[in-house]
Amino acid sequence: MNWLRRWNARSLASQFFIAGGLISIAAMFVVGFFVSHLIEETVIHNSGAATALYVDSVIAPLLPNMQTESLLDDVSAQALDETLGQGALGKRLVSFKLWRSDGTILYSNEKELVGKTFAVSDKLQRAFAGSLVARYEIASDPESDKERALGKPLMEIYNPVLQPWSGQAVAVLEFYETAEGLGDSLAHARLRSWGAVAALTATFFLVLSVLVFRGSRTIEAQRKDLKERVTELSALLAENRGLQRRLQRASQRAAALNETYLRGIGADLHDGPAQHIAYASLRLDSDVLINASTQPEAREKELAWIRSSLAEAMTEIRSICSGLVLPQIEKSSITEIVTRVIDAHQHKTESHVETIVDEDGPELPPAVKICIYRFVQEALNNAYRHGGGVQQTVRAVSHKGHVHVEVSDRGDGFDPTEVRPTSLGLVGLRERINSLGGSFDIRTGEGGTTVTMIFEPMEVGE
Length: 462
What we know:
By secondary structure, the protein is α+β, with helices and mostly antiparallel strands.
């Protein structure tokens, strides 16, 4: 089966050239042999017919009535001897025999054969049936020892002697002719016939080859293009599967982070505002406010504590809400978004943030703008909480759809391996950025921490 695989691996043009070439060569030999054999038989038959006509016109008048004679009389035999021994006919003929239907030789220029009977050959039977038989070959019949001794091909002709009024063959003239030049004529005829067949076959094969090679090139080009397309589609399919798995994981992590984030908000509300409100509620039921005998100063002092607790609860609630509610940033530029986050951070922490913004790109999708806002907000909060807010810097670049945002500080840094998977800050940032097709990176050490977010043009457009 290895040869079959190697054969199938070849191009269609190569397969056609090999298979078509072999078939064309085989067809050329078959047709050439048939045509050359047909031409050879035609040439021999025509040459024999011309000679037979000539011999028949010279010899037939000398023959007696073959219906009544069993052997030739001396006068007819002498007339044949004289005719065959001289002139152009005598030079052309090697031997001459007159046959009777039973295989008896009635006359021959070889006198020892006269009166002898031989087996009737197929050629003699066909001649008595009325057909002219011509062969160009070395004599092989039993009565042709003299002709065979010459060792060269001769023209052997069997010409029927027909009865004038009935057309029945009453005898057969057999003679051998030297036929000089016939061999060369046959060789030239064979050569010309083979040349014609070869030229026709080669022309036919070349024309087909041109068509097949052109078609093969087109098919190969289409096959190559199709293979490239299949490769591209396979790559896109693999990429889509990867993105689908990535989206599923991101969705699962986002659901888990949302749940954790909600628990964090609940904890903040429970540990902060809820405690202050509970404290104020308990003070409202105190004896100081219920007892009518309580002094006004004590009552006012108790109310002051209640007001203070409620005020602290409202302050913390507003602080939590301010972190949850985004400002209107859909129509804002990157410069406005970054400036708004930094101003809020500086007002809240009373720290300084160096700002570098370079913006000359196209309008960004709202999802990317929200991601930039949250990224800068969370990164600055982490820098202030864990790095002490030392030399905080924000660099934001948007150029032809390429977005690069970097938040850094010069604090003590931290160990990234110690970040818990349930941590809302860094994990939340990474998941938010990855879900939009961006990249997230953290570099930290003794010299500080740098958090980077990058979106490529294609990713932003999508």
